[in-house]
Amino acid sequence: MQDETIMDRSRAARSVARRQHLLDTARKLFVEQGFHRTGMAQIALASGIKVGQIYRDFANKEAIIAAICEANLNAWLDEEELNKAVAAKDIVAIRTWIERICSEEPTAEDRRLMAELLAEVGRNPIIAEINRKADERVRSRLDSALESLSPDATLDRRSIVVDLIFMLSWGMMVMMELSPEKAHGPIRDHMILILRKEMAELTP
Fold it and tell me: Count of CB atoms within 10 A of residue 94's CB?
């Protein structure tokens, strides 16, 4: 019985490793070629995993994209950090989390992936739905963080600040992609100042 348990764990570990290798390979191809020009056959060839096996793990290419987006979102949001800060009523930590979400500079690879996702939203309803759910999740977490800072602030007022955060973070991403040679530190610092002013004025 113990041997069977060990074998089951070994198979599970290999399955997790294979899945991660596939996602890493697909992510690289999506960045280099775009979602639209990357097919399952290319992912299979580059990863060394047979197409049939890929379809056992993922129903289609969109499911692969969804898994990549979910992993990226989990890492970026770091919701455990926010939950701890909210539970401890640590105002400084909550503000730091919000500022990071607003101003964290994505890597060149992440920027390309975000641009590809945005392009696909307009032509692929499945990707549009993935993006909608991610958008709702981020907005919900930002709103709960802002509510923890300013319990008396109205939902409409918090929503404006959430929209501002989205505009600033996407604007930074676009600026970095279009002008990678530019020093972005000063505008990033100014973004944080704007955000801090908005957060300070949340409570009526």
Answer: 22
CB 169 within 8 A of CB 138: no
CB 145 within 8 A of CB 98: yes
- Segment 53-65 mean pLDDT: 93
| CB of 49 closer than 8 Å to CB of 21 | yes
Q: What are phi and psi of 39, to 5 degrees?
A: -110, 170
131 CB neighbour count, 10 Å cutoff: 17
Q: Give the CA count within 13 Å in the CB-facing half-sphere of 114.
A: 20
Whether the predicted pLDDT of 104 surpasses 80: yes
pLDDT digits (tens, 9 = 90+) for 126-136: 999 999 999 99
Residue 161 corresponds to which tokens in the numbers above?
């600040």
- Tell me how crowded residue 190 is: count the other CB atoms within 10 A of its CB: 12
Calculate ∠ Cα 33-30-112, nearest 5°: 90
Q: How many residues does the chain have?
A: 204
